[in-house]
């Protein structure tokens, strides 16, 4: 039996000899046996978010971090600049229901965007919901808004403090007043209207911590307007698969209810699909078994269901399933470019493909005949294209790194796009440029990366450079504009975004090359991105910062263990840092399909080999590290970051000349819960990067 000794038993006096002094953290004798290997977990107590010991540790860590930032003289100027750049009107694309058009609007620095409607496109704006009034600190969000088919009612989902838990109320759209209905413990759910109610999914009330307890037994209910939640009708449950997601939707004509079932807790990456005709009481299968293939319901034309799948088509294809005959036919064949999205509006199908991480959109009739391409302004990312069956005009947005979001209206009959609304941000895109490069990873695979910087940049190896990555869950990092990136670019910084394997940039094959036993490819791709930037003299290792969030936080944590010399600064945000226990919290089991599980011996060996928490080494000079998390993150629970930071400070702290800090936000979740917190976080990230590179910005 092997024993992993972790090098944790540092005495406090020795710890105090380091350049930075960190709060003491008790080390327990907790151990676990994984397939004959004993793994110590001395900070297991930090998993208890209710314990006074944990709360006191959080307070002390935040005090240390706050004192660090108080010593940086330009924090106020940086925050002021971020606020100034973010302070411009922001609109969403409008969407129609009946006589009304709905859209979200933020005047600039409002903590939450406000939902408006107009009667007709040019009517007088009327506030429907203002989430800024939901809480005193602006941290309660509008988590969902679903109109009934006739537009008379809306299911409104609220989330508090950044939590993924939602509470629902019913809004009368004529009076804009709430009814008495209140629904609780909703997570991973839409609101699928049918007749005088809607289908939704919820969990049983959690036992123990609502923010950390494992979520199991996802059930589908039907709620009828005016009834209490305890009278909601149970539509579907599967006690034999407690770690499955079960989500219902309905067709626009309300004739069918569609049930999608996934079971990623069993390591399966796809879903099964079922339907139930109105008046029936049981679901019939479209695809009866959950496997590694995806099936996404898009729309129906009578008994014909439009479904997108990667079964037999890694880049996806569009098919028709007939509910009466059970027969399938392909209407849009798989292409060499991965299919990104399909939407239905105005009797047409709008199909988006990704070519070298840029969007290309085509219009098809309902039989799969291509009619035309909607030309984009250039390389970038487009989204939207949805609408009602009888819409004549739909809307979409286009953006890129130096192209602030523009909303376009598209006339379905003429095939013409027209600018509907431009962003009014104070930014001159002509002052900046974006390059896309393809660099070799360790195994020779060419990896795409965007590099953004101010024109006239000198390749002197000394430019502050921020490298961002993700690499997982079939998620693509697309080009997109962020006003919060501008201050970094203004100061001569370089922003690089690498499209690592594990994402969806080149379809399912690209995803599979970065998951489970092949996860090391993702880290190799990120390391190679940093080496490329250094080799091409954008920066050197003293001027390179690594940043990523969630799965990207895992990425950064793993890479600085493997290559602590690669970068000067590391920003792992809300990361999955304990790869041996992630499945034991909230919906962490949902990630087994991508990561594997420590319960499987072969997968354990791979997880153990890169787990950020379990590969921290003594005697190594780690990059300056700012770990960020939040107290209401119930997706990647903060215990991941707590245990990681405590270990990093204890094991690496005495050997590391750089600060190893953790920033724990309050009343926030997996992402910033409001605009103010988002800006404050970015100010600290940029200040941490610059201060550790010895760079002094000029405002």
What do you see in this structure?
By secondary structure, the chain is of the alpha+beta class. It contains eleven helices and 40 strands. The chain is globular and about 70 Å long.
Note the topology:
Elements: E1 2-4, H1 12-15, E2 31-34, E3 37-40, H2 52-70, H3 75-86, E4 90-91, E5 95-97, E6 100-106, E7 114-119, E8 126-129, E9 140-147, E10 153-160, E11 166-172, E12 177-186, E13 192-194, E14 197-202, E15 219-224, E16 233-236, E17 245-250, E18 256-262, E19 271-277, E20 284-287, E21 295-301, E22 304-309, E23 317-322, E24 328-332, E25 339-345, E26 348-355, E27 358-364, E28 370-374, E29 381-384, E30 393-400, E31 403-411, E32 416-422, E33 432-440, E34 446-454, E35 465-468, H4 486-490, E36 494-498, H5 508-512, H6 520-535, E37 544-549, H7 551-562, E38 569-573, H8 592-595, H9 601-610, E39 624-630, H10 639-652, E40 660-665, H11 675-693
Parallel strand pairs: 1-3, 35-36, 35-37, 37-38, 38-39, 39-40
Antiparallel strand pairs: 2-3, 4-6, 5-6, 6-7, 7-8, 9-10, 10-11, 11-12, 13-14, 14-15, 15-16, 17-18, 18-19, 19-20, 21-22, 22-23, 23-24, 25-26, 26-27, 27-28, 29-30, 30-31, 31-32, 33-34, 34-36
Helix pairs in contact: 3-11, 6-7
Quick structural overview:
This protein is α+β, with helices and mostly antiparallel strands and 699 residues long. It is globular and about 70 Å long.
Biggest sheet: strand arrangement: 33-34-36-35-37-38-39-40
Question: How many helices in DSSP terms?
Answer: 11
Mean pLDDT reading: 95
Distance between the termini: 59 Å
In angstroms, what is the radius of gyration? 25 Å
User: What shape does the CA trace take?
Assistant: globular
Residue windows where pLDDT falls under 50 for at least 5 positions: 1-18
Helix content: 10-25%
Task: Report strand %.
Answer: 25-35%
User: How many β strands by DSSP?
Assistant: 40
Oligomer: single chain
* Main structural class: alpha+beta
Largest sheet: 8 strands, mixed
């Amino acid at each position: 039996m092997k024993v992993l000794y972790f090098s944790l038993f540092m005495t406090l006096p020795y710890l105090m000899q380091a350049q930075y002094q960190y709060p003491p953290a008790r080390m327990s004798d907790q151990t676990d046996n994984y397939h004959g290997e004993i793994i110590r977990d001395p900070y297991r107590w930090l998993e208890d978010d209710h314990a006074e010991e944990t709360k006191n540790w959080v307070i002390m860590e935040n005090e240390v971090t706050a004192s660090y930032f108080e010593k940086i003289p330009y924090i106020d100027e940086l925050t002021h600049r971020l606020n100034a750049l973010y302070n411009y009107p922001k609109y969403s694309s409008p969407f129609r229901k009946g006589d009304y058009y709905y859209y979200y609007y933020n005047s600039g620095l409002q903590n939450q965007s406000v939902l408006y409607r107009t009667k007709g496109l040019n009517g007088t704006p009327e506030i429907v919901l203002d989430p800024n009034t939901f809480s005193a600190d602006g941290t309660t969000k509008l988590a969902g808004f679903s109109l009934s088919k006739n537009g008379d009612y809306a299911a409104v989902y609220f989330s508090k403090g950044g939590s993924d838990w939602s509470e629902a109320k019913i809004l009368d759209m004529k009076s804009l007043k709430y009814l008495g209905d209140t629904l609780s413990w909703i997570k991973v759910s839409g609101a699928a209207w049918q007749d005088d109610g809607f289908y939704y999914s919820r969990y049983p009330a959690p036992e123990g911590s609502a923010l950390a307890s494992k979520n199991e037994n996802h059930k589908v209910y039907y709620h009828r307007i005016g009834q209490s939640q305890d009278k909601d009708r149970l539509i579907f449950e599967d006690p034999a698969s407690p770690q499955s997601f079960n989500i219902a939707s309905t067709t626009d004509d309300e004739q069918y209810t569609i049930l999608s079932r996934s079971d990623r807790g069993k390591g399966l990456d796809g879903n099964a699909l079922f339907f139930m005709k109105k008046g029936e009481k049981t679901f019939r299968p479209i695809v009866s078994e959950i496997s590694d293939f995806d099936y996404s319901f898009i729309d129906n034309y009578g008994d014909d269901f439009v479904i997108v799948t990667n079964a037999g088509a890694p880049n996806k294809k569009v098919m028709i399933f007939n509910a009466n005959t059970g027969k399938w036919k392909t209407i849009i064949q798989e292409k060499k470019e991965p299919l990104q999205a399909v939407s239905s509006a105005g009797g047409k199908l709008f199909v988006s493909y990704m070519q070298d991480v840029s969007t290309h959109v085509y219009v098809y009739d309902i039989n799969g005949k291509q009619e035309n391409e909607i030309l984009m302004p250039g390389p970038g990312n487009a989204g939207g294209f949805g609408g009602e069956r009888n819409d004549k005009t739909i809307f979409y947005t286009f953006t890129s790194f130096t192209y602030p979001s523009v909303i376009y209206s598209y006339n379905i009959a003429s095939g013409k796009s027209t600018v509907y609304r431009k962003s009014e941000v104070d930014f001159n895109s002509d002052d900046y440029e974006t390059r896309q490069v393809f660099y070799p990873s360790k195994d020779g695979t060419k990896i795409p990366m965007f590099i953004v910087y101010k024109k006239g940049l000198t390749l002197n190896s000394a430019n502050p450079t921020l490298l961002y990555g993700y690499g997982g869950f079939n998620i693509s990092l697309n080009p997109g504009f962020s006003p919060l990136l501008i201050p970094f670019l203004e100061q001569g910084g370089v922003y690089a975004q690498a499209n690592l394997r594990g994402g969806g940039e080149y379809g399912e094959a690209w995803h599979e090359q970065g998951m489970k036993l092949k996860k090391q490819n993702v880290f190799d791709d990120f390391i190679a991105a940093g080496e490329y930037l250094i080799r091409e003299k954008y920066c050197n290792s003293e001027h390179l910062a690594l940043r990523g969030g969630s799965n990207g936080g895992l990425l950064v944590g793993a890479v600085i263990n493997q290559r602590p010399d690669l970068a000067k600064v590391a920003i792992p945000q809300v990361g999955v840092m304990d790869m041996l226990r992630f499945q034991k919290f909230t919906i962490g089991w949902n990630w087994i399909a991508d990561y594997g599980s420590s319960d499987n011996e072969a997968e354990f060996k791979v997880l153990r080999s890169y787990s950020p928490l379990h590969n921290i080494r003594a005697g190594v000079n780690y990059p300056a590290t700012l770990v960020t998390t939040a107290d209401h993150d119930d997706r990647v629970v903060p215990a991941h970051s707590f245990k990681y930071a405590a270990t990093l400070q204890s094991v690496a702290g005495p050997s590391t000349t750089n600060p190893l800090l953790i920033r724990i936000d309050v009343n926030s979740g997996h992402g910033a819960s409001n605009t103010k917190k988002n800006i404050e976080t970015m100010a600290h990230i940029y200040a941490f990067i610059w201060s550790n590179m010895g760079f002094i910005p000029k405002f």
